[in-house]
Structure formats: C-alpha cells, structure tokens
Amino acid sequence: MSRFTLLKKAKEIGVITERYPYKPTKVPEGFRGKPEIDPEKCIGCCACIAACPPNALTSLDENGYRVIRIFYGRCIFCGRCVDVCPEKAIRMTEEFELTADDHEELVQEVRLKLVRCSVCGRYYDTERHYRMILKEFEEAGLKVDPEVLRRCPEHRMGMSAEVIGLRRVRK
Amino acid sequence: MRILRLEEIENPELKEIYEEIVKRFGDGILRSELIAGNKLHLHVEKGFLRKVSSHIFDELGAFYCTTAGVDERPLGGGFRAYHIFSIDEKNLFIVVSAEASPSLPRLPSIANDVQGANWAEREVRDLLGIEFDGHPDPRRLVLPDDWPEGVYPLRKDFRYDLKEVPRVKKQYPMRRPEAEEYVMPIGPYHPALHEPEYFRLYVRGGRVVDAEYRGFGVFRGVEKVAEGRLTYTQIPFIAERICGICGFTHSSCYCEAIEEASGIEIPERAQYIRTIMLELERIESHLLWVGVACHLLGFDTGFMHCWRIREGVMDLCELISGNRKTYGMNLVGGVRRDITEKGREKALEYLAKMRKELREISEVVSGMSELTARIKDVGILSKADARKLSVVGPTARGSGLKRDVRVDHPYFAYGKVSFKIPVYSEGDVWARLMVRVEELFSSADIIEQALEGIPSGDLMAERIEIPVGVRGLGVTEAPRGENIHFLITGAENKIYRWKVRAPTYNNLPSVPIMLKDESLADAPIIIASIDPCFSCTDRMVIVDEKTGEERVLGAEEILRLARRGEIR
Ligand code: SF4
Ligand code: SF4
Questions:
Q1: What contacts 24+ positions apart, CB below 8 Å, involve B554-559?
Q2: Selected residue of A4, A7, A9 to mutate for chain B interface (largest B Cβ count, 10 A)
Q3: CB atoms closer than 10 angstroms to residue B113
Q4: CA nearest B266: which of B404, B410, B409, B411?
Q5: Residue A57: CB within 6 Å of ligand 2?
Q6: φ and ψ at residue B227, rounded to 5 degrees
Q7: Which residues fall within 8 angstroms of residue B22, CB to CB, at 6 or more apart?
Q8: I need a surface site. Which of B245, B270, B429, B559 has the fewest CB within 10 A?
C-alpha cells in the first residue's frame, strides 16, 4: 500500500468542507441552541434560575415587576432550564450564531407584574401565578376566598388547614 | 473510632490483605471502613503513613492513583490527606489517610517511596497548606508564581467568591542550565496541540539532556466553585467542562462517585447509554490525536483524513445529545436523554464506515518507513518507570502495563461487553500510537455490543437521596487513562469536597524521562505522544543568556516581539 492510496481516496471523496458561513449550515433535530422564554407562558416561578448551573438566568424584583433575565454570554446551552420549567415556557432553539457587538444584544428579559400581600403590603408573587392558582382552585371545584390567596406566605400562617395544605400539583 | 472486623469483609482477597495490614501495623490504624464492598479506607496514625503506603505500593503491587487533601476543621478535625491506591488485578482500592493538626499541618511525605505522589503532595501543599516533611521537590505546583505564600484557596475559610488576592513578585525556581547546556523552551503553547504547557529542555548539541515542566497556567479552581456555589445536579455540567475533548468521562466519573457513595442504583438503560457515549468520546478523542500525530510528523494528508473521519462521530454525537462535544446527558441518578432509533441506526452506520476507513489509513501509515522511523525507538518509557510513576491509559499500555479501568474496575455496562485491550511492550511513541489505533476498533466493538444489548426502561433512578458526610470514589477510563473523582458529600444540597484527578496528571511526569537523550527535533512528537491535555495560558519565560535573568512576558508583549521578529 502506498501513500498515493490516500491521495487517490481524497480525489474520490472530493471536497467535503462546507462553504460556511457563506452558506448556512444545518443542525439536527434536538440541537441545543439558544434557549428562549415564551413571555406569554412564563409565570415567574424561578425554577429555571435555581437549576441554571452558570447563573446565566437571574431574576430581579423591582418597582412592582419581576424580571427574568437570560444572559447568553454565560449560558452553556445545557437545557436544564427547559427540564425544570413547570410551564414549558422555555425551549432550546436552533440558533447558535450569537456574536454581538453589545452585551445587551445577548439578553432576553421577561417582565411580570407582581402582586402585594393584603396584610403587609409587600410584593410576594407574580400576578400571573396568582391568577393561575385562583383558576386552578376553581377548576377543582374548591372555593377559596381570594383574599386568603392575596396574602404572602408569612401572613397565610395559621389559616385554615385546607387552604394552607392546598398546593399546586402538576401531573 | 471504629475498626473494621475481619468478618465484615466478604471479599476473600481483601480480607487477606486487611488481615496482614492489621497484623503488621495494628497500632497505627485508628479507624477503618469498607465502602461499596471494594474500597478499604484506613485512617492511620501519621507516623505510620509511610510504612503503610509503602507496604501497599511495593508489597501488594498497587498502583498509586492520587492524593486528595481535605480541610476537615469544620467537621471537628484537622487537615487530612487521602492517598488513593488501586490494586488493578483484584478490583480493589485502598485509601490511606492521616490527619495533620489544624494549627500546624504537617505530614510525612510518601513521595520518596511512591514517586507518583510527588505532584499530588505539592498540590495539596499549595491549596491546603499541609507541609509534607521530606518531600524531594517541595516547589510550588499549581498556583501561579505571583500568588502569595500562606494563602490556601481550598481551605474552608477561603471564600470561593473572593475577588482579589494581593500579588507578590516571585519567580518559579527552574533549574539553571549548566555550562555548555542550552535552554530550549517549548511553550507557552504546544506547537500542534494548541494548548498551554511550558517545557524547558536542557540541550547539549541537539540532544535533550534534561527537561522540566511548569504547567497549570490556567488553574481555575473548579473544585472550589463546586464546593462553594453549585448544587449536586449542577456539578456534572462544570465537570464536563474540565476537558474540551473528554468531558463526558468527567461528568460520568463524578456521577459514579456520588451514586456509589449514596447507594443510588441507576437504571440499566442509563448505564448502557453512558457506556456508549463514553466510547463515542474515545473514538472522537483518539481520532483527533492520531490526526495530530500525523501532522506533527509532517504527514498532513493523514491528518486531514483522520479529522474527516472524526467529523462523522461529531455529527453523530450532535444528533444523539444535541451538541457535538458537550453532551450534557449526565445527571446524578442517570441520564437526561435517550438514544433514539435514529441515533442507533446512524451509530451503526458510522461505525462500519469508520472501521473500513481507519483500516485503510493505518495500513498506509504503517507502510511509510519515513514516518515509522521517526517514532520507533523514540521517546521510550520503560515498564519499570511506567510502574514507578503509576502512569495510566495508552501511555501505560504502550509500556507493557496491562491496566485499563474498564476491565480492572468495571463500571456502567463495561462488565457486559467483551473487547480487546491492546498492550505493547516497546514503550516508544510507535507503541502508544498503535495502542490508540487498535483501541478505536475496540471502542467500535463495545458500542455495537451495547447497542445490541441495551435494555428498554427508565433513564433516571427513582429515588435520589444523598446522605451527608459520605465518601465516594469514582473511577473511569478516559481516552487518556484512569480518571479519578474523590468526594465527600455535604449538607444543604452541596458537596463538601470534590477532588478531580485527570489522567494526564499521572502521565506528564513521565515526559522528561521520555525526552532524555532524544534529539531536539523529536521533542514535539514525544511530548504529544502521551496525548497530553494541558489548558490555556498566556505567559512565557525568556532567559537572557548573558545575565541568566528571567522575565515573564504577557500575551501582548509576546505578540509585539514576535511581529518585530525579536523572539529567537
Ligand atoms: S441552557 Fe443551561 S445555562 Fe443556559 S439558561 Fe438554561 S439552564 Fe442556564
Ligand atoms: S421560564 Fe419557566 S421556570 Fe423560569 S420562571 Fe418562567 S415559568 Fe418559571
């Protein structure tokens, strides 16, 4: 066998390098690209933030809003946020070309309105989550006083066992 | 304090070993315990540390794995060093540890008896401040030159998020060249591996007479980040980023250690999936290396073909896991992603093609005398030296040591597949090349059998509970050899101590031996022959020949000088 074997082989195979980036390249199904939050679905529960290994996801409560923020400069595209999101609000897209001139281009923010505790007045939950719980009680045929749910966890202490014991369970 | 009774040990070989140790060193054994049936922990009185270690290394023929230092002051103790040994042919591990006082931590060094412990003890000294009495070379190892003395980053009272540490002006004391010896720096980047390393070769007339290594330019303290900030389920992701080529072996090894320590049984399907991914990773890694070796020898056609073949396995992994290289599939308790029918088909298709093409290339390579002449009888590591340093992986198997974690300490689905382990006794670069080439075929065998035998079922264990204060030892065979993760679990969903020892750590100290008396032109391929995994740095040392003064240059300065053509 001579070294020309490989030369011959190269000729046989031809050019295999792709014209990327001049021609777009395809990624397979299930590729873990840039994660995106659907702002219509996110309830601001922060489960994704607790799971995110490099702290690419953060949240900040400010002026009556909760801001859920992904910074792609830190993201490692692991998809753990997708695993844990109870609302399936995050998905991994096929996008991977993330070069940017500015930090701020590498950010996605979701703003959610917060509700106040009817006793102490502090913000304690997002409005969307609060409404969702109300609705779920209704659908389960359980009557709860909306006022009770309008209390922060601290001021719900000592309320009737049914109310406190009722937690949202997803199948 | 508890001493294991003989009846508590089921394994007859371990029983015998333990009996002998107790008979000889009874007074020195303060505590002993058995973990997972084959890991014997001996807490010894520090005066016995050397004797017990030598007994295990010399008389029991164990290999030395590594040493982990732990700050146990918050647990009510002092500082402890755990020396880990493996008795390959009996599938046993013996962990010998001794405690140093919290105020003045000192322990006797075992590095004179067990040469392989030289680096690990220096690392423990750097990071935890245990002084090892009688150490043959107590220079700094992992911390940068300008790090102040007396600041120990792995101590528990050192905050993981500390931003600034005062820097000092200091130089690493390299050996000075003797008369008629010239210094030839190779680094700060390896010419072909594009990774940071700094080898200082002492040359006399084109022959290498001595070599020194200064590495760890990018020691980043991932262990500290994990201990300080991350939860158990987050660590696999940082573990996978320890290496850009064989990261999956690290996340697997970490999970294995936690699962074993906590008694978590992972589903069989998950074990098979881990095995398959680990072997795909080995194929990717070995093909990369064979290509680089061809490139270093000036055979770029071979390099191109190897990397072309490799591209197929990258695509395959991307299809299965969602990413070419960081598979991100491991979690404590199992795997997150299944191998689909499509993935299975593509894998089988790829393996068949790879076998055929690899055979073609290796036939061509072995037929090229100008290529083989440059690697045969070059860079020799004798079996005795290999054993003394406890080298691992293809480096060991190229020097006649038949050791492979997949067979010696089977994990995941490795016990259920059969494959060949190539061993060559020549100890030269050629032997290490042949081992890797043949291993590529073995990996294909393993994957095919695993895809055949993979049972259906769950991917994650049902119950995942991690108790506090248990010790785990994970061992996997990475593409470069035995990979070790030692850990102690902690409270609040956090790890107390996580020690990682990648295979290159045990292999690098063998490079100066391989380089001795070789010609300078062969140095790059000899260094590359252990398939070293360094990491990134931006420094280099310049020695002024007239004054003997050394300067460390930053990246910008290097670039400026290089453009002006002033670096000779
Ligand atoms: S993909 Fe991973 S790193 Fe990125 S935001 Fe989600 S959890 Fe964080
Ligand atoms: S994206 Fe999902 S997990 Fe994250 S805050 Fe919104 S709902 Fe919660």
A1: B558/B188
A2: A9
A3: 17
A4: B411
A5: no
A6: -70, -30
A7: B6, B29
A8: B559
* Residue closest to B237 by CA, chosen among B161, B331, B325: B331
CA distance to A116, A130, A136, A147, A163, per residue, from A168 (Å)? 20, 11, 8, 17, 11
A61 half-sphere exposure, CB direction, 13 A CA radius? 14
DSSP assignment of A108-162: EEEEEEEEE-TTT--EEEEHHHHHHHHHHHHHTT----HHHHTS-HHHHTTS-HH
Interface of B with A (CB under 8 A): 230, 233-235, 237-238, 241, 301-302, 304-305, 308, 311, 315, 318-319, 321-323, 326, 328, 336, 360-361, 363-364, 367-368
Q: Is A88 on the interface with B (CB under 8 A)?
A: no
CATH code: domain B6-133 is 3.30.460.80
Distance of CA B462 to the CA centre of its chain: 32
Look up the ipTM and state it: 0.88
Q: Report how far residue B95's alpha carbon sits from residue B84's, in angstroms, rounded to the nearest whole number.
A: 4
Q: What angle do CA B451, B479, B316 make, to 5 degrees?
A: 45
Report chain B residues whose CB lies below 8 A from the CB of A92.
322
Q: Where in chain A are the domains?
A: 29-114, 117-171
CA-nearest of B337, B329, B333 to B265 is B333
Q: Is the domain covering A29-114 a CATH 1.10.10.10 domain?
A: no
Sign (positive or negative) of CA dihedral B268, B269, B272, B278: negative
As a dihedral over the C-alpha atoms of residue A145, residue A146, residue A149, residue A152, rounded to 10 degrees, the angle is -120
Q: Where are the domains of chain B?
A: 6-133, 222-509
Residue having the nearest C-alpha atom to atom 7 of ligand 1? A52
For B134-161, the DSSP string reads T-S-----SS-TTSPTT--TTSTTS-TT
For residue A16, the chain B residues in CB contact (below 8 A) are 308, 311
Neighbours of B68 (CB within 10 A): 29
Residues of chain B in contact with residue A54, where contact means CB-CB under 8 angstroms, are 237-238
The A residues from 134 to 163 touching B (CB cutoff 8 Å) are: none
| Residue-by-residue DSSP string for B310-339 | HHHHHHHHHHHHSSSS----EETTEESSPP
The rounded distance, in Å, linking the Cα atoms of B446 and B283 is: 11
Find the length of chain A: 171
Mark A21-54 as b/e (b = at least 16 C-beta within 10 Å).
eeeeeebeebbbbbbebeeeebbbbebbbebbbb
Spelled out in words, what is the top-level CATH class assigned to the domain B222-509?
mainly alpha
The whole-angstrom separation of Cα B545 and Cα B542 is 9
Per-residue pLDDT of chain B (568 residues; tens, 9 = 90+): 588 999 999 999 999 999 999 999 989 999 999 999 999 999 999 999 999 999 999 999 999 999 999 999 999 999 999 999 999 999 999 999 999 999 999 999 999 999 999 999 999 999 999 999 999 999 999 998 899 999 999 999 999 988 888 889 887 888 888 888 888 888 777 766 777 788 888 999 888 999 888 888 778 889 999 999 999 999 999 999 998 899 999 999 999 999 999 999 999 999 999 999 999 999 999 999 999 999 888 899 999 999 999 999 999 999 999 999 999 999 999 999 999 999 999 999 999 999 999 999 999 888 889 889 999 999 999 999 999 999 999 999 999 999 999 999 999 999 999 999 999 999 999 999 999 999 999 999 999 999 999 999 999 999 999 999 999 999 999 999 999 999 999 999 999 999 999 999 999 999 999 999 998 888 888 988 988 876 422 223 333 344 444 444 444 444 444 444 443 3
Nearest by CB: B323 against A29, A77, A83: A77
